[in-house]
């Protein structure tokens, strides 16, 4: 039985993943720190919340086996470059450090297609720098999921997704859009599989393949 830490549980992928974790018999306890409270959670879900997510993370004290990080925004949603870096880099690293502090040996994180610390594009560069920071923590097992455009019902629809989703649905391979539920399924499948140690990068096409092996 595993104790799990998840951040980003109020988001598109994280919401699906939290519901799957609650139904998973191999999960004993879930710590799900958030900025705003989760509603109608069962007893096995501990939900410290604070507008400063780092303060909510600091309240987690149960031992942790597996860390999931599904945090992610855009510069437009964040409001500034600095706020975006805080959400997509600093808080991801804080999640990882919390997991390590509590004994976790495995971390799975939602990154993005095109993540590259040397990219000329700000979004991709920050995602790449986040990945490099996690690699430097020397996790026994680190899984980096790199989905293409995510499909699903957000509380606030992103304008570029509304415009580009029809196009991405017809693109091949890793460029093809992917349902957020499938990303969550793939993360669950990987977390409880006998995967290899070290760093594993899962591009979007591979995420779809893994998700297809997990019952809906």
Question: Could you walk me through the main structural features you see in this protein, from its secondary elements to its overall organization?
Answer:
- By secondary structure, the protein is an alpha/beta fold.
- It contains eight helices and nine strands.
- It has a single domain, classed as 3-Layer(aba) Sandwich (Rossmann fold).
- The strands form two sheets. Strands 3-2-1-4-5-6-9 form a seven-stranded parallel sheet, with helices on both faces. A two-stranded parallel sheet has the order 7-8.
- α1 links the parallel β1 (2-7) and β2.
- The radius of gyration is 16 Å and the shape is globular.
- The two termini are 21 Å apart.
Which fold name is given in CATH as the topology? Rossmann fold
Helix content: 40-55%
Mean of residue pLDDT values: 91
Estimate nothing, just give the exact number of structural domains.
1
Q: What are the low-pLDDT stretches, counting only 5+ consecutive residues below 50?
A: none
- How widely separated are the two ends? 21 Å
Counting DSSP H or I runs of 4 or more residues, the number of helices is 8
Please tally the β strands and state the result.
9
CATH class: Alpha Beta
Q: Tell me the CATH architecture.
A: 3-Layer(aba) Sandwich
Percentage of β-strand residues: 15-25%
Strand order of the largest sheet: 3-2-1-4-5-6-9
User: What does the main sheet amount to?
Assistant: 7 strands, parallel
List the helices and strands in order. EHEEHEHHEHEEHEHEH
Which structural class do the helices and strands define? alpha/beta
């Amino acid at each position: 039985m595993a104790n799990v830490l998840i951040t980003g549980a109020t988001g598109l992928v994280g919401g699906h993943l939290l519901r799957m974790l609650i139904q998973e018999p191999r999960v004993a306890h879930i710590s799900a720190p958030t900025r705003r409270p989760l509603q109608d959670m069962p007893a096995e879900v501990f939900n410290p919340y604070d507008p400063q997510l780092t303060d909510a993370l600091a309240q987690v004290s149960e031992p942790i086996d597996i860390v999931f990080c599904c945090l992610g925004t855009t510069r437009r949603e964040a409001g500034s470059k600095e706020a975006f870096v805080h959400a997509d880099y600093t808080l991801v690293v804080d999640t990882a450090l919390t997991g390590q502090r509590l004994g976790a040996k495995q971390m799975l994180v939602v990154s993005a297609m095109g993540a590259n610390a040397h990219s000329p594009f700000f979004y991709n560069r920050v995602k790449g720098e986040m990945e490099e920071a996690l690699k430097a923590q020397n996790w026994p097992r680190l899984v980096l999921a790199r989905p293409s455009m995510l499909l699903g019902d957000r509380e606030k629809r992103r304008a570029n997704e509304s415009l580009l989703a029809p196009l991405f649905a017809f693109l091949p391979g890793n460029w093809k859009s992917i349902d957020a539920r499938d990303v969550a399924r793939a993360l669950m499948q990987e977390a409880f599989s006998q995967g290899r140690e070290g760093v594993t990068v899962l591009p979007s096409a591979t995420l779809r393949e893994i998700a297809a092996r997990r019952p809906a």
